[in-house]
Amino acid sequence: MAMHEHPHRSLGFHLPAFRRNQVASDGAETSVATATTVRAYAFASLRLLTGFVFLWAFLDKTFGFGYATPSGKGWIDGGSPTKGFLSGVAAGPMESTFHSWAGDTWANWLFMLGLLGIGLALVGGIALRFAALAGTAMMALMWIAEWPPAKHLSDGSLSMSANPFADYHLVYAVVLIALAAASAGDTLGLGRLWAKLPFVSRNHWLR
Questions:
Q1: What is the Cα–Cα distance from 25 to 114, expressed in whole angstroms?
Q2: Of 143, 140, 146, nearest in space to 160 by CA
Q3: In terms of pTM, does the model score above 0.90?
Q4: Bigger pLDDT: 29 or 17?
Q5: Which has the higher per-residue pLDDT, 130 or 6?
Q6: DSSP letters of 125-157?
Q7: Which residues make beta-bridge pairs with 158?
Q8: How many Cβ atoms from other residues are within 10 Å of residue 173's Cβ?
Q9: Nearest residue to 180 via CA among 198, 207, 199, 140
């Protein structure tokens, strides 16, 4: 019998069909496991970076590191984390409402606690569903405050809006929801331990 007709026999061995299937199955399982691991670490990295965004905003507004908040103008120095932003709202259906909220004690505390809580939840990988809910509400309000659909501000000047719908607040909201849906706190975080706590296991919305 010609050698090219049965190459495995000509070389002195024959690989059984079930063994070939097993090798193919093992290879497929390894590929799936690798893809799952890469995806888990990608979501974990996104979670940590997003958490740092929120935490840094809290720290800079509290202590005035000289970036978005000038030195000596931090919350700890008597400055207001909301007055500058909300009083500067110049478009949208809630313009006057935001002006009335600017600098109010309740607004300052709610905004800062939101930044801190969301940032800690993301960095720790815990309570991601609650963080997604709170963060989406915060981003929605900030989206309305900047009002991307506006072509002109209330004084008639160009708004300089780069997109009438999709701005970074919307992107952050989607990221928060995706992180919660993917249980991104289970990798490089305390998500698994958090989920085992009795009050969390009884209240899945805290997951």
A1: 48
A2: 146
A3: no
A4: 29
A5: 130
A6: T-SHHHHHHHHHHHHHHHHHHH-TT-SB-TTSS
A7: 152
A8: 19
A9: 207
108 Cβ neighbours under 8 A, 6+ residues apart? 75, 80, 81, 82
Dist CA 187 CA 182 (whole Å): 10
**Three-state DSSP class for 64?**
coil
CA distance 124 to 186: 10
Is the Cβ–Cβ distance between 76 and 63 less than 8 Å? yes
What's the mean per-residue pLDDT of the chain?
91
Tell me the pLDDT band of 19, cut-offs 50, 70 and 90: low
CB 147 within 8 A of CB 91: yes
The label of the residue with tokens 């928060």 reads 176
Asked whether the beta carbons of 108 and 128 are under 8 A apart, the reply is no
